[in-house]
Amino acid sequence: MITVIQRVSESSVKIDGKIKAQIGWGMMVLLGIEEADTQEDIDWLSKKIVNLRIFPDENEVMNRSLLDVNGEVLLISQFTLHASTKKGNRPSYIKAAKPDFAIPMYEKMIGALETGLGRKISTGEFGADMKVSLINDGPVTLVIDTKNRV
Known about the structure:
Helices cover 24% and strands 37% of the residues. With 150 residues, the chain is of the alpha/beta class. Helix 1 packs parallel to helix 3 (99-117). The protein has one domain (2-148): D-tyrosyl-tRNA(Tyr) deacylase (D-tyrosyl-trna(Tyr) Deacylase, Chain: A). The strands form two sheets. Strands 1, 2, 3, 6, 7 and 8 form a six-stranded mixed beta sheet that branches. Its EC number is 3.1.1.96, 3.1.1.-. Homodimer. Belongs to the DTD family. This is D-aminoacyl-tRNA deacylase.
């Protein structure tokens, strides 16, 4: 799994011109799933996201997590994170998981994040044409790949 995590002061996702979900201060997380991903990846990554200390403390040092600041999460599926651009100019998405595998994994990630936070998160809609808006706070943007944990 690959994620792009952005600390946001607000974020939303629209589908067919209607707001599907929106959050205030927290994280907007783009999630790319590949066939090699497992429950272990979900467990590790969800724990990492929930406990990632990217929010400022009283001294403006990034020392607080989502749990510490009661931050919100907007999780968006994003198969293009697994694009290969090594050959030519058209990205290849062969590494991205097909929907029959990716949808259940996406749903498991939603559940894992909700369990870790102790509350519901906001989401996009798997496979939909989504318009995502955000105000990146900081800016703070991180990329985490579960295949590069060490």
